[in-house]
Amino acid sequence: MATSTGRVTGTTRDRAAGAADGARGRGRPKQAGPVRRAVSQYWYAWAMVVPVVVVTVALIGWPLVRGVYLSLTDATEATMGRTIGVNVIPSTYEFVGLDNYVGILTGGLFWEKLTWTVLWTVACVALHYGLGLGLALMLNRRLRFRSAYRLMLVLPWAIPPFVAAFIWRYLYNSDYGVINAMLRSVGLGAVGWLDDPTTAKIAVIAVNVWIGIPFMMLAMLGGLQSIPRELYEAAEVDGATPWQRFRFVTVPGLRTVSSTVLLLGTIWTFNMFPLIFLITGGGPGSSTEILVTYAYREAFTGIRNYSGSAAWGVLILLLLVVMAVVYRRALRKQGEVW
Prior knowledge:
disordered N terminus, two-stranded antiparallel sheet, MetI-like fold, 15 helices, mainly alpha, 73% helix
């Protein structure tokens, strides 16, 4: 009897303890998930980011998706839907899959334009970096009128590209250009800068280098000023020559900045549409036309081939993505985190 009573009492006690624990659990607030905690903790940051995300999706995301879709069709000016007055003409283009890409990649025109685009990019970026680094090294030293030199060297970057293009087009003019006038003044003959494929390519490279050097110079100058002076002093005490100090102190100290600006410079130069289009128009003929200018010509001149232009644009994007991924992996193998 006592045993039975004890069992009943123990069971009752266990039930009462469970009920108390349940009551305490119900009273305790539930822990929020990671997303909820992030939103509640950083709500101000999310409020600032959301408008940017919306605008980016509207201005970049949707056109990109639309462009990829058009590249898989046979859309042209004749097959695109449009409204003329009260008349609505429906679209008649059809889905063709990868036909546009196959046609571009199996033709010689794409590889011709790609070769010149790569040469143009490599030449411009190499000159940007080399001259920019040289000017940064000069301006990083103590010299008179350093602020004035910096201001003059930054001016080309402050001029809008289309204004610079018109200025240089006038300078290159065969009959009235300042450059040919200077050549005549020293007894040399005039040069048709924009009339010959070779000189036209040299001309557009020179203009792009003139515009791009200030950015590279400022980036390199900032990197140079972030290198501790103690490293140079220690190297000098150890008997290092100026070349050795540059090689073993300056170059490693600029590695992070250099990797970033080289990638940005490559992307900008690869897509440098305004200078080519406004200075030479891709001419003479199509000798200076790079990938982006040809894609524009496909979409907005002659018989407007929207699907072909979209396919060219997607290929350009894929080339840049592949280049960026390869470049990033190369940096990681060297120990750089980017």
